[in-house]
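Because discrete structure vocabularies remain unfamiliar, we turn briefly to a single example record, giving the amino acid sequence and backbone structure tokens:
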Amino acid sequence: MSEGIAYQNKDIEFKMLSESFKEKSFAAYGLNLPKIKAVLPTNLPAVSANELRMDNLFLLEDHTYALVDYESEDSVENRIKYVDYIARIVKRCYKENVVVPVIRMVVIYTGDVEQADDTFWVGCMTLRMEQAFVSGLPTEDIYRTVKHKLEHGERLTEQELMRLIILPLAEKGKEGKRERIRQVIELAKRIGDEQEQKFVFAGLLVVSDKFIDKADAETIRREITMTKVGRLIFEDGMAEGEKKGERKERIIAIMNMLELNIEERRILEMYSKADLRAAKEARTVKH
């Protein structure tokens, strides 16, 4: 669902993920993977006009890539989508670094799916997936434990923080997920450490974005922005977006000046060398 919580500015979501998910582990979901080293951009170069955007792409500590998708159904269409994602990641890595990456396809299924085949065979190629089924999580026990610790001022473990994020996905159906999201938001408001609170909000925005409708997404966004950390998240993100918009306008202005053969020394009296260089590059691509 592209029109979810962060539908107005996907850069906000990516910024939060980059700052919050480093050094985290997937062990809370029963997956034996190296810790996350970096969060990578999820927009992929597309041959068609339609942009493909996966859920998450992580660089792990062993220098492999983890392509992570959250799904509420097991379908052939999803597996074809993964093959497309993987091909585009390989293409991007080879083009940028002349290396063929080692990619792990990780699928985290919501409570709506209890089992799925972990391979997809197409004759010349077999896709093997590492799967997690959060339907098996003891959701009520996790919720009660986290609630008790926060009510008594105790700090949550990394595993508890990771499970708190995924808790809504363990529910079946939209209504169950919606109610659990509200509960997680209320718990997250009680987290005393701002970085940990930011981590939970970031994760909640990402995993819930795909499974709820636009109206519910906006309600959740408003709830989060009522907190101090939430306001900082979105204000910083929007400010960054505004900066990018302003730079785009400057580059367009410089391109127009170059088209009119205005001397570079005159342009540099008004704009920076970096903006001039970017305008030249954009002009080259345009022509």
Observations:
- The CA atoms of residues 255 and 281 lie 10 Å apart.
- The longest helix spans residues 228-259.
